[in-house]
Write a structure and sequence with these properties.
About 45% of the residues lie in helices and about 15% in strands. The protein has about 550 residues and is of the alpha/beta class. The strands form 2 sheets. The chain has an 8-stranded mixed sheet. An 8-stranded parallel beta barrel has the order 10-11-12-13-14-15-16-17, surrounded by 5 helices. Helix 1 (about 40-65) runs antiparallel to helix 4 (about 85-95), helix 1 (about 40-65) crosses helix 6 and helix 5 (about 100-115) packs antiparallel against helix 6. The protein is globular. The chain starts with a strand and ends with a helix. The model has no long low-confidence stretch (mean pLDDT about 90).
Length: about 550
């Protein structure tokens, strides 16, 4: 008899396979290790750190190639923690007191983990980063072999208490049918990597997951937030069918002939080819942070022109929407003065820094974008992140005018691209009519919009149930933005996680979105769903959802449950 365990689905995908438990950390109890003299133990610790550093640098490079530069940046933080004096001093103090290097590592890192777990937001998420580094050092010190998750047998469903970034980055989407974890939320590193790799994943299942034994048949139904043990034949057929979707290279229309653009969210130029292979019509969110991270100085104008033009050439008949630099206290950039803020998502980031501390970087980036608009084959669109006030948008548009004038005076070939604003705050949703009157398009970032509308931090597992775009307040904010865009003859897209969920495609068509942008792996599913959608029926679903009072009511409307 099948059993269903509820969790948080983080990819709109499902998979079926055989369970294999992942239980890292099989090393001697650090407190039971006999210590040599302090000098020897310090040498052992230093050697372990050097080996860990080599591993992390190699994993960072591999992750940047396979997953993306933005995701790979997590390893930069790991390298920083590896050399954090607060940690290393604690280890050395324990060694001086007679402890073995293993015990020193465990004590110092465990204290830091406990401290981070008592915080909120991104600071709490760093506890998992600390565990990753701690366990890596203990494995190296004990001479233990590393479990190679890249070599899992085909059809494996991986179960674990938690998966670290270095664990998840190893997974092969062709072999791993899915994974489920006891802990974690939608924005954990494991969830982010799963979406980028296209692996079905359900996190936050809880202690009940531990009751599933190795070798069991399990369906990871991330579309419905469930892990199903011993699934029946109907479930097996449904899960298997969900992975059999043909790639549609051409643009798609609804059943009644309305075209909806389906684009890809990209975090590095290395992902362009994969997006095209999945049938992307263009790029709906091109994150430019990868150009600025993991280097000692910012990219110059020429490097940026080349990068943006490459993206435009990859989609000569499509549109590439580039987001200007969005950094803040949550993304380490060595050459910028980024103070650590208590809540970086509500801090000095996005357009705020571009119009302030990072004005020179902003000017260089805008010059490069205007030049690339004239050089590349496709259509360039540029959008500004975290705009919350009309004054910010007006200032950004003024900078565009000034730079265009400068390029004109210099005799440099350029073109002013389509300009737009990200709707990712309640302020932007409420002022969408004013914004849309000034720009060519709006793009809704539902991950942040849901966070801010529901006052639920993306990194806080305790409020993960609130960080869901199906909540009526979030839907009503989206509807307001769509109406404002169309009333002002602007097009409107969505580049948040919500856009890539095929279960929500009919709702989004009904709400009137002109473009949906997502992780490339979900593009075929969403295109298939659009072709099966009738606009009038979709509008009825949207109207009913907008009138609903609870997320559960919205869910029933979408799934057509009675």
């Amino acid at each position: 008899m099948s059993q269903t365990l509820d969790g948080v689905g983080v990819t709109p995908l499902s998979g079926l396979g055989t369970v294999r438990w992942y239980r890292p950390g099989d090393h001697p109890d650090p407190e039971d290790v006999d210590a040599a003299d302090p000098e020897t133990e310090r040498e052992r610790f230093d050697e372990a750190r050097a080996t860990a550093r080599e591993e992390l640098e190699a994993e960072r490079e591999r992750t940047a190639e396979r997953v993306g530069e933005e995701e790979a940046a997590v390893f930069d933080a790991h390298l920083q923690f590896l050399d954090d004096p607060q940690i290393t001093d604690g280890v050395e103090d324990a060694i001086d007191d007679g402890a073995a290097a293993e015990a020193g590592v465990a004590r110092s890192f465990d204290a830091a983990i406990e401290q981070f777990e008592g915080m909120e937001g991104m600071m709490a998420e760093r506890a998992d980063d600390m565990r990753d580094i701690r366990d890596r050092l203990l494995r190296i010190l004990s001479g233990g072999e590393r479990i190679d998750l890249a070599e899992l047998p085909e059809g494996t469903v991986l179960l674990a208490e938690r998966l670290t970034p270095s664990d998840t980055a190893q997974l092969d989407p062709d072999a791993c049918a899915g994974f489920a974890t006891m802990t974690g939320g939608r924005t954990s590193h494991a969830a982010i990597f799963a979406r980028s790799l296209g692996i079905p994943a359900v996190v936050g299942v809880g202690d009940a997951l531990a009751e599933i034994e190795d070798g069991a048949d399990v369906a990871v139904d991330a579309e419905h937030d469930a892990v199903i043990v011993d699934p029946d034949e109907e479930t097996r057929e449904r899960v298997s069918a969900s992975r059999e979707v043909d790639v549609r290279a051409d643009r798609v229309e609804t059943a009644d002939g309305r075209e909806v653009e389906v684009a890809a969210n990209l975090g590095t130029s290395a992902e362009l080819e994969g997006a095209d292979a999945q049938g992307a019509d263009g790029v709906g969110l091109y994150r430019t942070e990868f150009l600025f991270l993991d280097r000692e100085s910012p990219p110059d104008e020429e490097e940026q022109v080349e990068t943006y033009a490459e993206a435009l050439d990859a989609f000569p008949d499509g549109r590439v929407v580039v987001r200007t630099l969005d950094v803040g206290g949550d993304k380490p950039v060595p050459y910028l003065d980024l103070p650590e803020e208590e809540n970086p998502f509500l801090g000095n980031r996005g357009i705020r820094r571009s119009l302030g501390d990072d004005g020179d970087l902003f000017e260089t980036q805008l010059r490069a974008l205007l030049r690339a608009a004239a050089e590349g084959a496709g259509t360039l669109s540029v959008m500004f992140p975290l705009v919350a006030a009309v004054e910010e948008l007006d200032a950004a548009l003024e900078r565009i005018d000034e730079i265009a004038s400068d390029l004109d005076d210099e005799g440099v070939d350029y073109a002013v691209p389509e300009l737009g604003v990200m709707v990712e705050t309640p302020a932007a949703a409420l002022m969408a009519d004013e914004f849309a009157a000034r720009v060519d398009f709006l793009s809704i970032g539902t991950n942040d919009l849901a966070q801010y509308v529901m006052a639920a931090a993306r990194e806080n597992d305790a409020v993960a149930h609130l960080h869901d775009p199906r909540h009526p307040p979030v839907l009503r904010a989206i509807d307001r933005a769509v109406e404002a865009a169309h009333d002002n003859d602007a097009w409107i897209g969505m580049c948040g996680e919500m856009a890539g969920n095929p279960e929500l495609t009919e709702l989004l068509v009904g709400l009137g979105l002109d473009e949906l942008s997502m992780s490339a792996v979900t593009i075929p599913d969403v295109k298939a769903q659009i072709e099966e959608t009738d606009t009038a029926d979709a509008r009825e679903v949207a109207d009913r959802a907008l009138a609903a009072s609870t997320k559960e009511d919205v869910r029933r409307i979408i799934t057509q449950e009675s």
